[in-house]
Amino acid sequence: MDGLKNELKFSLPGEWEQQAAIWLAFPHNDYWLGIDFDKNLFHSGLAAIQDFYFKLIDICLDFQNVKLIFNDESLMMSVIDKLASFSNEKFKLESLVIANNDVWIRDYGPIFLYQSLVPDSQNKSVNLENSKKVIADFVFNAYGGKFPPFDKDNAVPGAIALNQALPFHAYFQILEGGAIDYSSDSKLITTRECVLNSNRNQDFTEYEFELMVEDALGVEEVLWLDQGLANDHTDGHVDNTARFIANNKILLSCTENQQSLNYSISQKNYKQLLRYKDKFPELEIIKMPIPEPEGFLESELAYSYVNFIFLNGAIVVPTYNCEQDSLALEIFQELFPERKVIGLDSSLLIQEGGSLHCISKQEIL
């Protein structure tokens, strides 16, 4: 068995690389009915968030395939006419019935990665001709058991693996997809606040986490931040805080507003990342402003532009009807002149604590 284990090499491509599809889970929970629709930006009811999804799907289908899961067939049939309207799009919308509890597929969904059949220890790059796409599945417990039930969500990666006929590697440790972000050269960034939290894996150490992601995901270097943004009920997911946008470029949520709860957090995160330049001299840290919509300083929400989505040829950026929106879009366009930068009002979505990256999951080629 030891010999067989040593033959396996896992590789994670960065999210900016070409994707086969983007996965979404269609909303069905009644809690959306109680959302506060400030300024009449959205009509009331569950239909509002469903309309938001249709808008996002329409954007995605301009650039790549979309795979949309429904909790049950009746839910899918309730919107079948709208689904049919996408049939003439450039790319394909695939609808699947896979039971789920909630929309946050980034966190409970599968991690798609490559498994090399004959690994070359001298070559860290992914050789697609010598690799196959597989799924890694970690345990999901809804952020330390905060939001039950989550049994259906926890079973989604296995169901997707079966539906898509993909090899499946299950792990007993708890890990959400939004708790990690990674490059194509085997670096990963995370926060101690989240992945070492006792409500995930009891008495988990940095060393144990690093061994886990090395074994399961092929990670060779972990970049540690102490904590994520304030008011994040996920206990500091890194996808609100810092994201790789290239192998040696990290986009960091940062504010110069000293009244903000995120001021000291973001300044400390910036200093912590700077220390990694000793080991990675080419590392570039790019500051992204933190949205400050009306009432932000008193809110209980973790607003972030860093919670964006990579698409093939595009970037979809959450916006929040505040003055920082235009600056954020300008920064993204400067960083990605070859991609179309699209702002999408996510004021409704953030009211349940997440944003665009949280509700999506990229599938590799």
**What number of domains?**
1
The CATH topology assignment is L-arginine/glycine Amidinotransferase, Chain A
Order of helices and strands: HEEHEHHEHEEHHEEEHHEEEHEEEHEE
User: How much is the radius of gyration in Å?
Assistant: 20 Å
The CATH first-level class comes to Alpha Beta
Largest sheet: 4 strands, mixed
Strands across the major sheet, in which order? 1-5-6-7
Note the beta-strand portion: 25-35%
Question: Which of globular, elongated, flat, extended, rod-shaped describes the shape?
Answer: globular
Uncertain segments? 1-6
- Give the helix tally: 11
Q: What is the architecture at the second tier of CATH?
A: 5-stranded Propeller
pLDDT averaged residue by residue:
92
What is the assembly state of the chains in this entry?
A: single chain
Helix content: 25-40%
Look at the structure and name the CATH superfamily: L-arginine/glycine Amidinotransferase, Chain A
Q: Care to count the β-strands?
A: 17
| Class per helix and strand makeup | alpha/beta
* Head-to-tail CA distance between termini: 29 Å
Keywords:
single chain, 365 residues, alpha/beta, L-arginine/glycine Amidinotransferase, Chain A, four-stranded mixed beta sheet, 11 helices, 17 strands, 26% helix
Could you characterize what this model shows?
The protein has 365 residues and is of the alpha/beta class. It has a single domain, classed as L-arginine/glycine Amidinotransferase, Chain A, CATH 3.75.10. The protein contains eleven helices and 17 strands. Strand 11 and strand 12 form a beta hairpin. The longest helix is centred in the first third of the chain and has 15 residues. The two termini are 29 Å apart.
